[in-house]
Amino acid sequence: MKSAKLLHNWPADVAAAIILVVGMGFGRFAFTGLYPLMVNEQILTIAGGSWAASANYAGYLAGALAMAKLSVRHAVPAAVASLLATVAALALLGWTDTVWAVVLNRGLAGVFSAVAMVAGSLWLLQYMGRPHSAPLLYAGVGMGIFLSAELIALGAVPGWGSLLIWRALAAVALLLALFACAVLWRSRRDLPLPQAVPKPGAAAATAAAFAGPWLLIAVYGLAGLGYIITATYLPVLISGALGGAAPIHVWAAFGLGAVPSCFLWHRINLRFGVRISLALNLLLQGFGVLLPVLHQSLWAYLGSAILVGGTFMGTVTIAMPAARQLSTHVNFNMLAVMTAAYGIGQIVGPIAANAIFDYSGSFAGSLVFAAVALWVAAVLCRPKLGRV
C-alpha cells in the first residue's frame, strides 16, 4: 500500500514527464540542434536534412494513427516500448553516417515520439487519473529540448563530433528512461486499473463550447502547422543571419520557455476556460512566429524562441485535457486523433514553407503563412455568447 500511495504523488508525475523528455525532447527535437553540425560534417546535405525532417513528421503521423485504437489498459507497455525504442534510435545515430540511414532512423523516431505522446497522456491522465498533473507532463517536452540542446552545446566545447554527441544523448536518455520504466511497470503491479472518467459536467461543457470534437481537432491541426515552421527552421534562420554560436542556445531558450508555460497556461485555462485560453495562446504564438519578419536581430530571434516556446506546449496543455473530456462523445481514441491532426499540420507546414521559399528566396513569407494559420485557429476558438 505504501508504494501505491507513492505512485499517487511525485513519481508518477515525474515518470510521465520523462516519457516526453525522452520521446519528444530527445527523440524528436535533438535533431534540430544537431542538424547544422551534421551538415558541416557532410553526414547530411541540406536536402538530406529536409528528407530526414519530413520522414520524422510522417512517422509522427503514422504513429498517432497506429495509436488510434490504443486502450487505456495498454498504455503502460506502449509507453515503455516508446522509451526503449527512442533510446535505441538515438544510439544508432551515433554509428550512422549515411543520409538514407539517418532518414530511416528519423522516420522511426517520429513513430516512437507519437507513441510516447499518446501513451504518456493516456497513462497519466486516464490510467492514473491525474488530469491536474497535465502541466508537468507536457513540460517534459520543453525540458527535453532544453536539456538536449545544452548537452549538444556541452559536447561542442571539447570538439566532439555529432556521432559522439548522439551517443552521449542516448546514454542520458537511457538513465532517464530506466527510472520512468520502473515507475510505469510498478503501476501495473500495485494499482488496480482506475475507473477514472471525465466528469459528465466537464465533458458536456467542453463539448458544448466546441460544438463537438471536430472543431477542437481542426484548431489543434492548425496549431501544429503554425508552430512547426519556427521549430524546424529557427536555428537555420539564426545561423544564416547572425552566425557564431548563438543558434543552439537560442534553441535551448525555445525549450526552456516551454517548461513554465505549461503551468501558466493551465492556470489561465482554469480561470478563463478552454476557448478563451486557446484563443489568447494562439494569438500570442502567432506574434512570436512573426517577430523575425518584423526585425532581424538577436533579440528578435530570442523573443521569437521564448514566445513560441512559451506557447506551443501551452496549446497542448489546454487542448489535450479538453480532448480527454470529449472522449466520452466519440467512439475513437480522441488523444490519438488529436495527435494525428497535429502531425498533419506539421507535415503541411514545412511543405508550404519550402514552396514559399522556392518562390521568394526568403523565409519571411513562410513565417507570415504560419502566423496566419495560428491566428485563424485563434478565430475559430473565439468564445460564443454564453460559452467558454
Automatic annotation (TrEMBL):
Pfam families hit by this protein: MFS_4 (PF06779)
Segment forming the signal sequence: none
InterPro entries in the record: MFS_4 (IPR010645), MFS_trans_sf (IPR036259)
Spans traversing the lipid bilayer: 12-31, 43-63, 75-95, 107-125, 137-157, 163-185, 206-228, 248-265, 272-293, 299-323, 335-357, 363-381
This protein's UniProt keywords: Membrane, Transmembrane, Transmembrane helix
Designated name of the protein: YbfB/YjiJ family MFS transporter
